[in-house]
Amino acid sequence: MAGAEHEVLVARDAMTVYSFLLDGRNLPSWQSGVRSAGLSSGSAGSVGARYQVTMDGPRGRPVARDYEITHARTGAEIQFQVVAGPSFLRAGAST
After folding, report:
1. Please, which residues bridge with residue 72 across strands?
2. In whole angstroms, what is the distance from residue 69 CA to residue 81 CA?
3. Is it the case that residue 2 has pLDDT exceeding 90?
4. Which DSSP string do the residues of 42-70 spell out, in sequence order?
5. How far apart are alpha carbons 66 and 68 in whole angstroms?
6. Residue 71, SS3 per DSSP
7. Which H helix or E strand runs over 77?
8. Mean pLDDT, all residues of the chain
9. 50-56/62-73 β-pairing
10. Structure pTM?
11. Confidence of residue 16 (pLDDT cuts 50, 70, 90)
């Protein structure tokens, strides 16, 4: 199983940051190379929510990727799985 870790100091309380990261529609504002992200099914920011993401791919062409939140431990942990499209991380970003 792939994994990634990254630490950043953010001048906000932990629950505000957690809620922001949990909602996949916020990806374009913090992950480089993400062109758009939208909720495709489920309730935003909850287990079972699916998001459709368009990222910069090879040679700048758009690449679609769908992912689903599989586990969320409030304030501490978010797990997801890619359900369609490539599963890759860009340098300097983690999901």
Report:
1. 78
2. 7
3. no
4. S-TTSTT-EEEEEEE-GGG-EEEEEEEEE
5. 7
6. strand
7. strand 77-84
8. 86
9. antiparallel
10. 0.75
11. very high
